[in-house]
Amino acid sequence: MDFRGREEKFREADRRYAELKRQLDAGSISTEEFEAERQRLMVLDEGRWWNKFGETGDWHYHDGNTWVRDTPPVYQEEVTTEPTSPPAQTLPPPRSKGAENGENGRQRMPPWILVAWLGGISLVGIVLGWTLVSYLQGEPAPIEQGEPIQSEQGEQKPVGAALDAVFIHRATPENISGHNTYLDNSLTNNNPNAILYVTQNWNPGGSGDTYNDHPIGVWYNQDTQRWAIFNQDREAMPDGAAFNVAVLEEPTEAR
User: Fold this and answer.
1) Is the Cβ–Cβ distance between 202 and 250 less than 8 Å?
2) What is the pLDDT of residues 182-236, one digit of tens each?
3) pLDDT for 83-142, tens place per residue?
């Protein structure tokens, strides 16, 4: 992907965040809806995940252990490519098209660098995709509430560098409240800025068969200091519903 394409991903996330913030401030969306949509703004750039946090929407990247506030590389490159000549300097006379592509024109990236970069990004995408698929398939295994997915031999599967935890959550009478089911995990409890990726799992481990036919979202309850999965249409959460949950921890600055 060229520089313009990479920059557009971040610009679109910035525009979407600003729109969500205006809707939140105007009261047209709830805090839960704002958080659910904000988490969808993650951008993968050069093998590194970026997302926006806080009231100001500062960019953070995930270094494999935690979130670190920084400026995305495309914005840094944009600054370095700004003209450095003084504003009062006289502009050079117009050049022909041939001269524009000469030594004073913008140099094109050598093809071998672009090919190598695209190959690296593709490899990272394949590894991350394979990791997520293998974690979220719901293999036959003794799975405990809020615990990491286990293999048939009982060994805990290693978590990929981009994720801090992957587990299956089951809705039970003890954690259901109306259209919500509350998580209980050490990486999500007391952590309002964790990023959660949640999908429904109809039959984890070959058992359960409880179908929750409703669109879902996640939100953080400040009173209980717990994250909850909720039905967006406010229909009651069924007992036995199961969900795949992938967790990225909050950035240190956002605590």
Assistant:
1) no
2) 999 998 999 999 998 889 997 887 776 788 989 999 999 999 999 999 999 999 9
3) 555 555 556 555 555 444 444 545 565 666 665 566 666 655 654 555 554 445 444 333
Secondary structure (H, E, C), the chain: CCHHHHHHHHHHHHHHHHHHHHHHHHCCCCHHHHHHHHHHHCEEECCEEEEEECCCCEEEEECCCCEEECCCHHHHHHHHCCCCCCCCCCCCCCCCHHHHCCCCCCCCCCHHHHHHHHHHHHHHHHHHHHHHHHHHCCCCCCCCCCCECECCCCCECCCCCCCCEEEEEECCCCCEECCEEECCCCCCCCCCCCEEEEEECCCHHHCCCCCCCCCEEEEEECCCCEEEEEECCCCCCCCCCEEEEEEECCEHHHC
pTM recorded for the entire structure: 0.41
Contact between 181 and 169 under an 8 Å Cβ cutoff? The reply is yes
Sequence spans of domains, the chain? 3-80, 165-254
